[in-house]
Amino acid sequence: MRIIAVFSSFLIILLSSSSHFGQTIICDFCKKSIETGQYLQVDQKYFHSEHFICEKCKKQIKGSYYPKDGKYYHENCYKSTFLKKCSHCKKPIEGEYFVINNKTYHQNCYDNYIADKCAHCNKIIKGEHFEDYWGNKYHYEHYGTVPMCEYCQKLISFKLTGGSTIYDDGRVICKHCKSSAVSNLNKAQRLLEDVMFSLSLQNILIKEKEIELHLVDLKQLRIVSKNGSKHSNLRGYATYHYTKENDVIVKKEFDIYILSGMPSSYYKMVAAHELMHIWQYQNSDENISKILSEGSCEYASYLLLRKINNSNSKYLIWQLEENKDAVYGEGFRRVKKFVEKNGKTAWLNLLKNEKDFPQGY
Ligand SMILES: [Zn+2]
Ligand SMILES: [Zn+2]
Ligand SMILES: [Zn+2]
Ligand SMILES: [Zn+2]
Ligand SMILES: [Zn+2]
Ligand SMILES: [Zn+2]
User: Do the Cβ atoms of 77 and 57 come closer than 8 Å?
Assistant: First the structure.
């Protein structure tokens, strides 16, 4: 709410005692008669000029005064006593002020320091806006018109994300996410081994000998996963290849395909998911239900992210938990519920021995 503060001042007019036609006049302050020298008349009261005293500081008022409820004040004493103070700069407010949440601000202080600013265009946000996971607020009008980072979901701007890069397959990644992007196979291999080690500490042991890692772009990933649709969550794929002789499997090989150029925490999350698929190829019935299978892979990502425990991993856990997908999101929540009640060993045994969730999950 915008309000204008009003106040007033009066100038002291000095009179001379000779002008008073012989009447006895009494100083309102000292109650003695005023006989010689200069005096003042204010609101039908008279004062020796040195007895016209500020109610606040008790010093003589010269020049102009501010009246209030029959008392008189210096300008600064009046303002510091009676004017509202700005909740930001703590100074008295003259002229326009702004009230919000029971706090009062200079209009300028409000605009410059308190008002929500759009994280994209830096202009003041009035009314409706949207907010990302990180607490950045944006004008609605940018939503859908300004590109968003595929990985942190911040709207791209130089100030907020340092700009962006667009990959050949169309993915938009902000500069901050790009700084940890995994685009080289050596780094990818090393991180995959880290993830495998971290899962082994959770008793998810994967025989690693025949796993081959491929870093691919989105087009290649769609081809190998035979997923032609624009499935936005397509980030990795795991498959196997068994060599048979006389109907007997003599060699098992596994391939993991992961999108190149993802930030490292994101890459690790996907790697844990795909490694859990490999674990299932090595341990589970091939007809295991999709929801138990994918939910368990998402849960493996969750176990890994919990160990990383930084702001990015918390964000990714939030994504797993909030995922509305009927297989991935729902499967994750059901596995989480199962583990919370029965423990991790029971979950891994479930994957080894059953094809679906037991009753109640
Ligand atoms: Zn007096
Ligand atoms: Zn004063
Ligand atoms: Zn202020
Ligand atoms: Zn804006
Ligand atoms: Zn980003
Ligand atoms: Zn999967």
Answer: yes
